[in-house]
């Protein structure tokens, strides 16, 4: 009779009303056949479908003005594309090309564009004698409305003439045609269900992608995988909540003690899996942020170790001052570079040393430089520690390398915190031995000092890297270091698989494209689910999921909060939320997008 008591305790009218909204009828039908016989499941079905279609109904209507804008970059170019969207596209065409044959949908047509204010007579002004026009009738278009693309010669005067002419194509043009606002084409696509919010965000990413890896990330974000995943999770939560609330509602006069316990246990298992998937997504999102905003790589080493020389070799220009005078670099020099398709931010730092190493005092300015260097190295995703060959006063006799204890201490701490550290043996051209002879004793020394096995790449910044007359180390060292770095970055940014089936046929997991906004909402979602599990857990820990002891109403409420977070991600949330998000997203969009 436990279930009966539960029903009496919780089965108030309010909860009954709510439970109809999100029930997953099929599974409940199977589990609780007796219950279904006595309740109006048609009502449940009806409410379910209305809930499932909480899509934005804020679509642009046929009354919305037709918009137009230059969709290619402004300035001189071979071609320029002006795009129009709305129900006046064909009127615009007829006014610009009076008497020309009708446009066939999705077929390019070569036309002469005329100034619509000249009436098409003998003195008619030609805007462009060879324009290519494409007409896409709604609804299967980028915006969901009729779209007209006008490809013209890309001279600034032609562009201006066409943009002046378009609003004059239709009488009373002010109210019916206007220049598009930033991102308005995409906004219309969103409201007409051609794109969801996650795809709109990925579109912004595509436009700003500068490196190969960022491009791949943005393209995978546009693929709809992420959106489908969020929707699937939300449906799972809606179903779980529906079943839970049905339990409240129908428990009143039913006897399903054991099955109810199994049922709660099965829901909590599902939720645990979901929490783990969400956590993996947010971890992958952090890796995606690295691809988007750049991997921070710090060049660490003693004064004169060759940090600035290495930076200059990597970027292929004199970005930092190189001098034989120790302590030349006092502050951070930051340079962005594309390494193996990854966006990297290299930081050349002040040399680090301790006064004990060479018995010389460290002045205030130098100390500040050292402090800053350490702070930047701590923040970096990867540290390249430069150990120079043969700097007399500090050389280790066995290896000929200048190990500075201050640096090794610092690196040891970083390694303990799982930081990726790449060791480079700089100035290896000064040694007479081969790379193998140099590297092995150095690696052994470092392993003994740091307590972990490390890699050591011999490099030289002297001469031209392509000069085969240079020693083996000179010509290959820097490229070897960059190849090693690329491998480290690939590992650092490799996404963890979210679902069994995911990534199987994808080169990059879509979760890498999770934006900051989505991450925040995913964290809120996971927090609500954790609270749900805490409500269910105490009983599980006691070896039972006695439904009598569980506050089912509160548990169902946590599922509602979690499902709402996912709805906000995809734009299925309240219209106020969506507007707020769109405002932020479209702020970054240009006119014509
Ligand atoms: N032989 C040799 N000399 C190098 C190499 N790399 C740098 N040097 C020389 O070492 C000196 C110091 O080089 P930098 O690149 O300024 O060293 P740094 O670590 O940036 O020095 P600070 O700014 O003082 O910390 C310069 O005279 C360079 O020409 C190398 O690979 N081989």
TrEMBL record:
G domain: residues covered: 296-425
Domain GTP-binding protein TrmE N-terminal: from-to ranges: 66-194
Molecular function in Gene Ontology: GTP binding; GTPase activity
Swiss-Prot/TrEMBL keywords: GTP-binding, Nucleotide-binding, tRNA processing
Recorded GO CC terms: mitochondrion
GO terms (BP aspect): tRNA methylation; tRNA wobble uridine modification
Domain MnmE helical: 197-590
Listed Pfam families: MMR_HSR1 (PF01926), MnmE_helical (PF12631), TrmE_N (PF10396)
Key word GTP-binding present: yes
Similarity annotation: Belongs to the TRAFAC class TrmE-Era-EngA-EngB-Septin-like GTPase superfamily. TrmE GTPase family.
PANTHER family assigned: TRNA MODIFICATION GTPASE GTPBP3, TRNA MODIFICATION GTPASE GTPBP3, MITOCHONDRIAL
Protein name (record): Uncharacterized protein
Organism, as annotated: Gomphillus americanus
Source lineage: Eukaryota, Fungi, Dikarya, Ascomycota, Pezizomycotina
């Amino acid at each position: 009779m436990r279930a009966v008591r539960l029903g009496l305790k919780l089965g108030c009218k309010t909860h009954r009303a709510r439970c109809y909204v999100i029930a997953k009828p099929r599974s409940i039908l199977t589990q609780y056949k007796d219950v279904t016989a006595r309740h109006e499941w048609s009502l449940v079905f009806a409410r379910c479908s209305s809930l499932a279609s909480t899509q934005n109904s804020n679509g642009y209507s046929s009354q919305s003005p037709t918009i137009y804008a230059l969709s290619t970059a402004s300035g001189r170019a071979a071609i320029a594309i002006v795009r129009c969207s709305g129900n006046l596209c064909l009127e615009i065409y007829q006014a610009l090309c009076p008497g020309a044959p009708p446009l066939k949908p999705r077929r390019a047509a070569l036309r002469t564009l005329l100034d619509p204010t000249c009436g098409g007579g003998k003195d008619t002004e030609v805007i462009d004698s060879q324009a290519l026009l494409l007409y896409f009738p709604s609804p299967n278009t980028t915006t969901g409305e009729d779209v007209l693309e006008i490809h013209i010669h890309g001279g600034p005067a032609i562009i201006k003439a066409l943009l002046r002419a378009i609003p004059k194509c239709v009488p009373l043009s002010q109210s019916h045609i206007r220049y598009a606002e930033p991102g308005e084409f995409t906004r219309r696509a969103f409201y007409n269900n051609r794109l969801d919010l996650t795809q709109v965000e990925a579109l912004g990413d595509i436009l700003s992608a500068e490196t190969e890896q960022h491009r791949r990330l943005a393209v995978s974000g546009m693929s709809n995988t992420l959106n489908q995943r969020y929707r699937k999770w939300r449906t799972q939560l809606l179903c779980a909540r529906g079943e839970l609330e049905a339990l409240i509602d129908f428990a009143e006069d039913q006897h399903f003690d054991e099955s109810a316990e199994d049922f709660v246990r099965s829901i909590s298992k599902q939720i645990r899996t979901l929490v783990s998937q969400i956590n993996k997504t947010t971890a992958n999102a952090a890796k995606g942020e690295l691809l988007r905003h750049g991997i921070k790589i710090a060049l660490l080493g003693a004064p004169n170790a060759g940090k600035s020389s290495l930076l200059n070799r990597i970027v292929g220009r004199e970005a930092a001052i190189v001098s034989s005078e120790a302590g030349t670099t006092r502050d951070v020099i930051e340079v962005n570079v594309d390494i193996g398709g990854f966006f990297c931010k290299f930081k050349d730092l002040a040399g680090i040393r301790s006064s004990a190493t060479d018995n010389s005092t460290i002045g205030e300015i130098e100390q500040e430089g050292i402090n800053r260097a350490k702070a930047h190295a701590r923040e970096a995703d990867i540290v390249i520690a430069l150990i120079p060959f043969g700097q007399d006063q500090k050389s280790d006799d066995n290896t000929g390398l200048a190990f500075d204890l201050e640096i090794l201490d610092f690196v040891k701490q970083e390694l303990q915190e799982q930081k990726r550290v790449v060791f480079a043996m700089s100035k290896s051209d000064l040694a007479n031995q081969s790379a193998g002879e140099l590297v092995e004793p150095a690696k052994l020394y470092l392993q003994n000092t740091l307590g972990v096995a490390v890699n050591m790449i011999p490099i030289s910044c002297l001469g031209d890297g392509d000069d085969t007359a240079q020693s083996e180390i000179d010509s290959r060292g820097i490229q070897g270091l960059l190849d090693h770095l690329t491998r480290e970055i690939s590992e650092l940014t490799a996404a963890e698989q979210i679902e069994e089936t995911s990534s199987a046929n994808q080169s990059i997991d879509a979760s890498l494209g999770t934006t900051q906004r989505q991450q925040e909402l995913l964290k809120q979602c996971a927090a609500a689910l954790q609270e749900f599990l805490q409500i269910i857990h105490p009983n599980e820990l006691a070896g039972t999921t006695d439904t009598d002891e569980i506050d089912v109403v509160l548990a169902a409420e946590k599922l509602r909060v979690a499902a709402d977070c996912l709805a906000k991600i995809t734009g299925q949330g309240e219209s106020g939320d969506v507007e707020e998000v769109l405002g932020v997203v479209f702020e970054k969009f240009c006119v014509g997008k």
